[in-house]
Amino acid sequence: MCGPDGPVEKYLAHSARPELDIPAQGYFEHAGNVARFCKNELSSIVVGDGYQRGYDFFKYCLLHAALFHDLGKLNDKNQSVLRGDKKARHLPINHCDAGVAYMMRHKALLSALLIYSHHIGLPDMAGEKIRKNSPSGDLRFRDNDEAVRQDSENLEEYLVRHCESFGSELSSIENIRTDGRFDLRVATRLLLSCLADADHTDTAIHYRNFHEEKIPLLQAEKRLAALDRYVAGLASGDKSVKLSKRNIARSGMYQKCRCGPTKNWMYYCDSPVGTGKTTAVMAAMLNAAQAKELRRIFIVLPFTNILKQSVDVYRNALRLPGESDSDMERVVAAIYHKAEYEDENSRQLSALWRAPVIVTTAVQFFETMAAASPAGLRKLHALPNSAIFIDEAHTALPTNLWPLAWWWINKYAMEWRCHFILASGSLKKFWELDEFKIKGTDNNITSLLPKEFSEWLNALETRRVPTKRKSEKMDEVRLCEWLLTLKGPRLVVLNTVQSAAVVARTLADRCGRERVEHISTAIAPKDRELLVKKIKERLCDKEDDNWTLIATSCVEAGVDFSFRNGVREAAGLVNLLQLAGRIRRNEEDCYNDSVVWSIELDFSWLLKRHPSFEIASKVLLDLFAENPDLINEETNISDLCTRALRRELNECGMKEGSSITEDEAACAYASVEKKFKVVDSQTVTVIVDTHIKERLESHDKVTWRELQDNSVQIYVHTAKKFKAEPVRGHPDIYFWPYKYDGFIGYMAGVLDNEELNNCGYGFL
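RESULT FIELD:
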């Protein structure tokens, strides 16, 4: 058979789209492309010492799953729909069952699981009649499934057609076993990630929704040299900077990280805020990547708004001669949202981990580790052979999720050659507590910094700015009145998006909009970027001192701000310490009367309580009650933070975390994905720009970068409550139908809408 573009395959994998002038895709072409993608990706993954035999087993399972994942599409009824002979929204026969049956026949049980899951996701083992069958980790899968048995009757015909398409005999399927060293749960997620990405990518390329970009290499040695030049330029270029202890600390920090240890796979760095971790730890990561021949670097940050600042630094600091701005966008990728879409029309908008340097959020990073769905897992196979910097680790996860996350980190470090550095200026050494200890490991990680240097840095931090507690509870009016008694510029951090918006608007009404700035996740990334730039400009103007920034916790970590006074709604001890890192950050002489205040709010009407902070704030207030001079020159910050964590655990226990850990042990993949939420509720992408919405509905090309820059993440139940409508043709992307402005973002639509306002529905 021939068509206008050459030979046409007898059997199809994807139907044509005549309205877009896209031909059908042949079965051989698609299955072959998916298998080649998987093979190429596996060739770039190196495993830990002693794990090669297990890796060979996984490679074998994945390639067979890739070749036979669409075997059921060879069914006559399915082919009729794919050819356009019959109109149907879905294939009449589940096309996964034939491949599952074939793999089960040959006891290729892991391959069967991958094929079964490549559209619907990994199941809970018990719920799908999957059980461990031997010490080697084999699986007994869907023994009594009627659909698989019925489809097995046509299996021989499918196999003949498969051979006809590929033009050769089937490769033998042997009963290979893993040696049991790998953790099967982590490996299964990685394999499904690779299969799902291969399937989605090839489909998107065929339907012209995706253009595969050439991925640049990390080139760790060259980029480390570029970083050295960048840091040296900073030191020599700013002649106005005095040779203070703070600047000496930053210089020493860089050198000790730059030439630090790389032998182990896990390190911690408890350097205080303001000591230059952004460049120093990147030097440590590049040093490790060079020593261990790693392929990627991940920077995991707690909040979306600080990504841009870090990305700008890395794109400037890591640039090689001849690389343009567009080249650096491919070298250093900024991924703000957990943008993952199952719908075929939206898959190309998923933000993937393909650049050599990935800057992303803790939500995206850890929820990808926990994922079971193909869209959620699609990026995961990029993680092996990488260096991972978990910045501000104290706030990366809720306490109850850390035991399982810590177990995953250990597995990726030992089995998949992942080099981890956990850092924070207020680091909780949770791995020292009994709840986090893992059998078979020494439950200890090495400091990246020498002990004496770390202690010297700690002493510098505790002398810099005092902390105090204000005992009076305040509503928005009393809070604004009190704020105006403090010398500016002032930084106020509140626990919820709604409280921040209410206080920002109240304060602006009282003293004028020009004296109030506001930043939170209610504002789209493109507008937050402009806001951060404006705030930095105002802070540089020492005559412009009578103004206030109202924000959420998204500014309390990793942002290079230096305010005169700071106010923090009671949350955890680490939150207060992080805010202190934005107050008199550079030891300004004119800020020698700076104070960091801990306050409590009166939640009478529009101010919103954040339930996640209740226990941590109680512990903080108890610590203040015991010792009003909580942080002084004798305080060891890391030890104090670990002590606070111990109290939080005593208050809440680890029941929920234990439940998730038990689900993981039982291979209950779907349950783990459902329960392991860094943010309590599921969010959806909501566009705030009408032009982007119209382009999507008109099938114009919109990149994932454009989508994330012009959208916010809103809880699913909130989007439904306020009738945010799905974008036509993209059921998993929504549009915000109310007012949005650059001051308080989508909260403008909430506070200006009397009906929404009166319903009393709060935004966290």
